[in-house]
Structure formats: structure tokens, C-alpha cells
Amino acid sequence: MKQSTAGSLPALGLRANAAQFVLLVAVNALVGGMVGQQQTVLPLLAHAEFGLSGYTFLFAYVAAFGIAKATSNWFAGTLSDRYGRKPVLLAGWLFAIPVPLMLIFAPDWGWVVAANVLLGINQGLTWSTTVIMKIDLVGPAQRGLAMGLNEAAGYGAVAATSMLAGYLAEHYGLRPAPFLLGIAYTALALLLSGLFVRETRPHALLDAENMTTRAASVRHGRDANLANRQVFALTSFREPALSSASLAGLVNNLNFGLSWGLFPLLFATADLSTSQIGLLFALYPGVWGIGQMFTGALSDRIGRKHLITAGMLTQAGALAVIALGHGYGAWAAGTVLLGAGTAMVYPTLLAAVGDVAHPIWRGRAVGVYRVWRDLGYAVGAIMGGIIADLMGLHAAVWMAAALSAAAALAVAVRMYETHLPPRTAGPCGGCVRNASDPSHQHVA
């Protein structure tokens, strides 16, 4: 897409915005690293230094993180649509400053929970904003690729930092060494975001100007001026593709939230070392992160729906492997498979939301989707903790497997294809649904 005729708005596309896109990928890697610094360490710290044994109480920090992140996602979307993306990004990094210090000096578990509230706000504001900014920059044609690269950077950094934090914890102790990473990440992110990141809201306005026969135009009468409550209702319940994405996202992050609190404890039952546990935990987000570099682009070619359905089914199978496993080899295979299934789903869901949401309310739609998705952290932590306390760790994993299979079925039944691959577009290339779909609508 070229620059607008007025000459006041920038061009859309990955190549035209390569420098800013790469910079935002780097910033999102630092966002993911803030989570990775603590994932391997905190469950072990809970036992070793705070003497916690009840799973429900122990998982409170994951629930606090999830609720805070989900809430801040909504504010990130709303505020970025109203005031611009960059101010929200910078505000998110300011919330990160106390987090590693609180984890280093925490005298009791309440400090850890409080630090994760701040971390959740940081993640919601910064990750949501980098997602919205990349969607703004690339336009509709390469949206899946953009989301794949964004999420690959974030979760690749989660994996790398989890493994590095496990190594530091084993060789230098659980505190403070692993959390020094968070101090460095925050300082670097504030520098990059403050000095080099540019506002992308003008790109969204250009996208809206060019939008004639896209999904929101077809399904919502070209109405770009929706109230917040309308955007919430569409994304949560009314619009089939948006609401199906929200459900699948919630179950996906339920799995991640469960794994965050439960996997280190499950793996510790086999008397594995801290570094081995860190490596096992890193396999999941590592495969997830690398895989998204390919699955996001793949969804641009073959469409979103079937990739999401297959990914949720793959996650269900992977969790069954982990529940049945009793050693390093089986758990490694299960976490690799779980990462592959998540890679199929994660960028594709974001791309589907971007397909359907009008650029004027896209930030709010992404925010609402991420509210539901990141509530999965809290749901996974609370349900997983209760089931683990009552029935054991393996039963909690089986619960997640069953919910993943149910989500796959719901997507298969309710969601329509939001992205028509270019090679099959034909004379109706601007339409949302495939021409064979009985509810297909053509817009001239």
C-alpha cells in the first residue's frame, strides 16, 4: 500500500516499516523476558524460602498476575485508541521498575504476589501495545506474519530467560541473581521505547481510510464508531469469530498459567536438578516462540480457523502425554508438543481479531480479546491449584487436556474463516468468507 494522496500519512507494510517493526520486536522480547526471569524460580522459592506447600495458595501469584494483566489489557486498548500507542507503552514499563527489586527483597509471599500484580500491569500495557503497533504498521496482507514474529520474540525470550534464570539459581542461589535480569531488561526497554519507538496511530488511520471490503465492513455495516460496550459485546459474545477467538485464547492461557505454577513442581517429583527443570520448562515456550515464526505466516496462506482448531487439539494431546509421563524423556516430548500446538494457535488468534476488527476500534478489540485470553492465567492457576490439592498434580493436567479438546470443538463449530488466502480469492477477493460458505456475503 502506498502513501495516502494527502501525503500526511505513512505507508503500510512490513518492508516500508522494517526499522520500527524490528525495534518493536526487540522491545517485546524484553517484555517476555520479564516473565521468564521468575517462572522457573518462584515455585522453587515458595518451597525453599517461604515453606509453602498448598498448591492453591502457592498459585496465588499466577492468579494475581493473570487478573492484573487481563484488566490492564482493556485499558491498554482503550487508552491507545484514545491517546496513542507510545504513551501506553512507556507507562507499562514504568510499572516494571519495582518488580525485580520486590522479588529480591521480599520478606514474605505477599510481596511476591504484589510484585506479580505490578508485573501483570506491565505485561498488559506493553505486550498489548506492541501487538497493536505491529498490526498498525503492516496492514492486512501480512498480519499473520507480523503476529508470528511478535509472539516469537516474546515467548522466545520467556524460554531463554527461564533457562538462564534456572542456571543462575542453581549456581548462585534463588536470590538475587535470577532477578538481576529483570533490572537490566527494564532499563534497556525504557531507553528503546522512550528514544526510538515512534507513534503508529497514523498508520491505523491510513488503514481505516483504505478499508472498503474487509471483515468489519461486511459484518458491521462499515460502522467505525462503536461504543466501548459494543466492542466488548462483539468481541466477547456476539461476533462468532471474535468470541471464538476469545474462548480459545482463554483456554490456551489456562494451559500456560497451569504450567507456570505446576510444571516445576511436577518435574521436581522425579528428583530433577534445578537446571533440568529450567530446561524442561523452557522447551514449552521455546518451541512455541520459534514455531510462531512459521505458523503466523502459514495462516496468511491457508487461513486461520483450521490452524486454530488443530492447535487446540495438539495441546490436548500434549497435556495427555505429560499427565501419563514419569520422567525427563516423556515430559520433554510432551512440552515440545505443547509448544507446537500453542504456536499454531497464538499468533493466528491475534491475526483473526485483526482481520475482523475495524482499525478505529481495533485497539479496543485486541484489548478485550486479551482480557479474556489472559484471564486464563487466573482460571488455570485457581482451578489447577484446587484440583491439585484435592486430587493431585496429574489430575490438574488432565483437566487442562479436556478443556483444550472442548475449545477445539467450539472453534470448529462456531468460528468462520476470517482470512481468505490470496490464491483462492478469485473474483470475490475482498470478501471475508469463502464463497462456498452458505453465509458468504459479497460486497461490491
UniProtKB/TrEMBL annotation:
The keyword Cell membrane applies. The keyword NAD does not apply. Keywords: Cell membrane, Membrane, Transmembrane, Transmembrane helix, Transport. It is found in: Cell membrane. Residues 21-419 form the Major facilitator superfamily (MFS) profile domain. It comes from the Bacteria. It is a multi-pass membrane protein. InterPro entries: MFS, MFS_dom, MFS_trans_sf, MFS_Transporters, Sugar_transporter_CS. The chain crosses the membrane at residues 12-35, 55-76, 88-106, 112-133, 145-167, 179-197, 247-270, 276-295, 307-325, 331-354, 375-391, 397-416. It holds the Pfam family MFS_1. PANTHER family: INTEGRAL MEMBRANE TRANSPORT PROTEIN (PTHR23517:SF3), RESISTANCE PROTEIN MDTM, PUTATIVE-RELATED-RELATED (PTHR23517). This is MFS family permease.
